[in-house]
Amino acid sequence: PLVPTGELITRAAAARAAVAAFNVITLEHIEAVVAGAETAGSPVVLQVSENAVKFRYGRLLPLARAAVTAAERAAVPVGLHLDHVRSDDLLRQAPDAGFGSVMYDAARLSYADNLAATRAAADWAHAQGLWIEAELGEIGGKDGRPPLDAHAPGARTDPDRARDFVAGTGVDALAVAIGSAHAMTSRTAVLDHALLTRLSAVSSVPLVLHGSSGVPDEQLVAAVGEGIAKVNVGTALNVAMTGAIREFLAARPEAVDSRAYLGVGREAMAREVGRIIGVLSRADGG
Ligand code: G3H
Ligand code: ZN
């Protein structure tokens, strides 16, 4: 069934566990994430980013409708989340499109501007009954910027600011820059576990890890124990799907039916979803 994302994250945070949140761009992605979560028997978050909406000719509804339908029919609880929203116009479409939560991304702005914009977004979101996540620090690796930028200590989330930002904006969760970066195709990130522990100690809300595709499994497990309650994964699913499709087409140059390769890609993606949920479940119960 479709459930409010906030309920999933709140329950996970209370248990020092984490919910996996997977980015979806196509119908096959939605099907793969739901199938992988059903096989694992775990709740999951389906998230649609502003960049995914841009790919869909700027239209949210076609993908949103598919995600709502898939969530409603799923055998496990599914939350729907609008991810990395910068456009106020897109933000305002979230409730009617069926989303229970949003990530408002003003992290590129100065601290003062991020705070003001995020507070306004949070006030609006809460009036709509939406759960809202925001980012402080710069996780990096989006919009073609080199992922390694985020590994610079200067881009990381400062604990004093994190405490003030959460209090000043009223957000329900905080995305932190602790050494992961978006769009990494190998698991070579090195998380700053000491910083994460300090951030958890000062934050009154659950913390979110972005760019989790580049984080080695053991570090993911450790990060959940240190206070990460939502683990965002996008690139790893594309690595699995595209790799399987590339291999299939190389072996069958005569193939033309798109169901043949999309089906192979979807299965590979569903397996990766199940694998990642399995890794996170190792953190359950300590
Ligand atoms: O918000 C989405 C995530 O941060 C995904 O990052 O594609 O590097 O796994 P990733
Ligand atoms: Zn992200």
UniProtKB/TrEMBL annotation:
Enzyme type, top EC level: lyase
Name of the featured protein: Class II fructose-bisphosphate aldolase
PANTHER family from the UniProt entry: D-TAGATOSE-1,6-BISPHOSPHATE ALDOLASE, D-TAGATOSE-1,6-BISPHOSPHATE ALDOLASE SUBUNIT GATY-RELATED
Entry keywords, A to Z: Lyase
Essential cofactor(s): Zn(2+)
One GO molecular-function entry: fructose-bisphosphate aldolase activity
Domain of life where this protein originates: Bacteria
Signal peptide span: none
Assigned EC number: 4.1.2.13
